[in-house]
Here is the input.
Amino acid sequence: MNMKKITTLKLLAYLFPVLLMATVSSCKKDHKETIAPPGKYENGFFVVNEGSYLSVSGSVSFYDYTKGTLTDSIFTTENLGKTFDPNTSTLEFGTVYNHKLYLLSKVGGPLVVADDNSLKETGRIAAAATNDFRAFVGVDSNNGLVSTSSGIYPLNLQTVTLGTKISGVSGEVGDLIKAGNYIFALSKSSGVVVLKTSDYSVVSTATIAGMVVGFARTPDGAIWAAGGTQLVRIDPATLKAQTITVPFTVNDRWGAWHAGSITASTTENAVYLANNNGLYDSGGTDIYKYTSGTSVPSTPFITLPTGKSLYGAGIAYSAKLNQLIVNAVNSDYSVGTDLYFYNATSGAIIKDVASTKKSYYPAMSVFH
Here is the structure.
């Protein structure tokens, strides 16, 4: 081997570690620079508002955990020219699935999908007279289900299009929740209906008649629904149901549908259930708490301040705060809303974010 080749090999042996370190350093630097900053709407939760019939269509508000403030109309701010019209529809449901915020309207309104951190719209089923959406549940990265006033439809999450109506479930269907190998649906005519996740076929032996409010999930994995004077615990593995008596009649809300006024803790096996009035399963003032292994107390866990009433779903649980979040309006429906924060253990009120700007009619709170 000649001297030139020897010199070249020695030089390469010296330069290779240096070049490698420079490349790694450069990759680290590039990686650091391309990491997306925290989302604008990441540190907080959403409030989905119905809107005001014939006056204004629905909207989305955002509560910022750091600032402690509620900002209205964030969706239209981030998506200029896009709305939830027509104003004859009501924006009634929202949920976050795989970093997408799904927003569903009743009575001719659209189904809208947005990034849950930026609120930028990523998909839409346009408003149409034939639309009458209720709730959404994600099944996997490509598929979900949408309940409507006339059954359940599969939703392609990539194209945001509906498929053929699922057989075996008819009439109005509301809340949906997935647990293990099953999807639980709340049917106006049948109560709790259970579908297999694999093929959406109905497990006929698992239907629970008489249930009118759902669903909540406790840390032990149990699914909860209610109806009549019963709170029902469902084991999502065996589908066996256990009933617990509550000290009031649980009213339905099919007359003016909204998501169920039931929620659960994420730190204890406890369920919170609102005692709404019988008109539209809204307008109540009392919230009861049931802790697994005990009985439901005869007195409310929380009673709203005088002159205030629950609206829409009314209650939700913030895992980040370990607090119960309550949406309320003035009992006489005069202009004004309240976003209450309650201690989930003691029931003591912590904070009230009140607004007197206009009545947005809050349908439900939605968390990341």
